[in-house]
């Protein structure tokens, strides 16, 4: 049976196709429409998916009636799910789709599953048990208690886009002093111990960034100057409060389930600084590399399948055919220190992991400015390293052997040797690479190591700030014409 998973009418629409436990296709609508965080799927993504098979059934990532009650509550009732005609549809709750995306792609047969996001239909924070092929809910918390809304509200307060630019605030936190605003921010997200698990009694009196105490301190909630230290101090306080609450919640989830394997899903699982701290609580952790709503098309399909699916790697989207251009990239790196590559199937998830990437020499401290210039983004933002898995422990304080999806901020042991991939707090968002995950990227890193003695490269996504990652061959041509930057891959490597 072929199952088409669909997620849309919220941010980050996506489509997935699975057959007998194999993932045939999974991709984001925004890469086709070029509308960042596109709410809707489009003909092009469906056409791409259908190359791999015709679906017998659609699995939809939310329960429409339940969601509608919340939208009516919020004053927006004109809503209905969109799918495809003439194909039967099965519906799953928002958080079950998250939980299924995580558990059924994991290697675990026994785990606690924690889902934390802004809001599903009504659920915001859920705890599940996964045993064998079954997942069952253990505890559910509803709006207004919400890790995601807490974080997004402050994201908006900093004049960033909620549901999209939380990662920028997380990056800003490294430059701030958390103590300056800690007490104020903390008062908006009290300890669950103080609340005695009664989350429904008005923990928040803010909604989407209306936070009176900050107005008094800053003057206006929307400070326009980027390098106002108060913004960085506020970001640091938010990150610290978030981490404190997250650790408490995870300890609670562990205590009520007795599980030592964690599956963590929902948009909050993208906070790589906080994620690292969870290794102190659990023995093993799996975060599916697309833990936000965009991963829920796969989650709904997995929920319908009801068995573990065969997760190999995140290269599941549009194909740019041809060999991965390893030799060209190596020569370009040696000559100009930066190489741009678009080849193979696009990554499913927010991170470019080698198939839609800008790679650069991490030893050069000035390379950051050059890459930022290409990407037209803020200068303080950190870049991530890719490292040979074999050497990862030598260069970073790894909490585990491999971190192939850039999900953890990890202390770098030699920041002076690779300054362009180390953040202000001394950490790096590490992507380990082995010969199974991506043989060509692995070989490139080996060759780079033989040449330089450094098994690390800078890797950042091939996009302009605020735009989706490049998707197909046409995007390559358009980018080259517009920005006069050579991209290796597709027709450029024949
Ligand atoms: Fe969600």
Q: What is the straight-line distance between the termini?
A: 37 Å
Share of residues in strands = 15-25%
The chain-level structural class is alpha/beta
Tally of individual helices: 17
How is the largest sheet built, in terms of strand order?
Answer: 18-15-19-14-12-20
Mean pLDDT: 87
Number of E-type strands: 20
Helix content: 25-40%
Instruction: Give the biggest sheet.
Output: 6 strands, mixed
Global Rg: 22 Å
What ions, cofactors and ligands are bound?
A: fe (ii) ion
**Gross morphology:** globular
Low-confidence stretches: 195-225
Structure description:
With about 500 residues, this protein is of the alpha/beta class. It has helices at about 30-35, 45-50, 65-75, 95-105, 145-155, 165-175, 180-185, 190-195, 210-220, 230-255, 270-275, 295-305, 325-335, 365-375, 390-395, 440-450, 475-485, and strands at about 1-5, 15-20, 20-30, 55-60, 90, 110-115, 125-130, 135-140, 260-265, 285, 315-320, 340, 345, 355-360, 385-390, 410, 425-430, 430-435, 455-460, 485-490. The strands form five sheets. It has a six-stranded mixed beta sheet with strand order 18-15-19-14-12-20. The radius of gyration is 22 Å and the shape is globular. The chain starts with a strand and ends in a 6-residue tail after the last strand. The model is unreliable at about 195-225 (pLDDT under 50). Fe (ii) ion binds near residues 94, 267 and 293. Fe (ii) ion binds near residues 94, 98 and 120.
């Amino acid at each position: 049976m072929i199952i088409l998973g669909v997620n849309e009418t919220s941010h980050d629409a996506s489509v997935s196709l699975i057959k007998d436990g194999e993932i045939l296709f999974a991709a984001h609508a925004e890469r086709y429409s070029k509308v960042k965080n596109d709410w809707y799927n489009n003909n092009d993504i469906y056409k791409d998916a259908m190359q791999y098979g015709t679906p017998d059934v659609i699995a939809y990532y939310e329960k429409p009636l339940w969601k509608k009650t919340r939208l009516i509550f919020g004053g927006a009732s004109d809503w209905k799910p969109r799918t495809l005609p003439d194909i039967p549809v099965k519906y799953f709750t928002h958080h079950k789709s998250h939980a299924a995306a995580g558990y059924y792609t994991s290697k675990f047969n026994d785990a606690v599953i924690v889902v934390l996001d802004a809001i599903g239909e009504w659920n915001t924070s859920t705890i599940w048990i996964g045993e064998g092929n079954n997942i069952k809910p253990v505890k559910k918390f509803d709006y207004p208690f919400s890790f995601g809304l807490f974080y997004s509200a402050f994201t908006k307060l900093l004049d960033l886009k909620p549901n999209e630019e939380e990662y920028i605030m997380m990056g800003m936190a490294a430059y701030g002093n958390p103590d300056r605003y800690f007490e104020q921010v903390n008062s908006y997200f009290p300890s669950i111990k103080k609340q005695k698990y009664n989350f429904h009694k008005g923990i928040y009196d803010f909604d989407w960034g209306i936070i009176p105490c900050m107005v008094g301190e800053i003057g206006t909630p929307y400070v326009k100057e980027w390098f106002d230290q108060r913004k960085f101090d506020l970001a640091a306080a938010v990150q610290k409060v978030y981490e404190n609450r997250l650790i408490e919640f995870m300890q609670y989830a562990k205590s009520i389930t007795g599980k030592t394997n964690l599956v963590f899903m929902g948009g909050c699982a993208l906070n790589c600084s906080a994620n690292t701290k969870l290794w102190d609580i659990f023995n093993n952790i799996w975060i599916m590399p697309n833990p936000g709503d965009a991963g829920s098309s796969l989650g709904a399909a997995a929920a319908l399948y009801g068995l573990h699916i065969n997760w190999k790697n995140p290269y599941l989207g549009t194909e740019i055919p041809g060999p991965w251009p390893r030799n060209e990239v190596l020569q370009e790196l040696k000559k100009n220190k930066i190489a741009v590559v678009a080849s193979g199937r696009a990554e499913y998830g927010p991170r470019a992991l080698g198939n839609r990437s800008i790679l650069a020499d991490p030893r050069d401290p000035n390379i950051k400015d050059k890459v930022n210039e290409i990407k037209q983004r803020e200068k303080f933002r950190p870049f991530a390293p890719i490292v040979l898995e074999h050497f990862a422990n030598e260069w970073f304080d790894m909490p585990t052997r491999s971190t192939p999806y850039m999900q953890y901020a990890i202390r770098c042991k030699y920041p002076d040797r690779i300054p362009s991939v180390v953040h202000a707090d001394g950490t790096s968002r590490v992507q380990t690479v082995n010969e199974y995950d991506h043989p060509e990227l692995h070989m490139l890193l080996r060759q780079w190591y033989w040449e330089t003695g450094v098994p690390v490269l800078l890797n950042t996504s091939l996009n302009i700030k605020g735009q989706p990652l490049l998707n197909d061959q046409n995007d390559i041509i358009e980018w080259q014409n517009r920005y006069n930057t050579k991209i290796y891959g597709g027709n450029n490597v024949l």
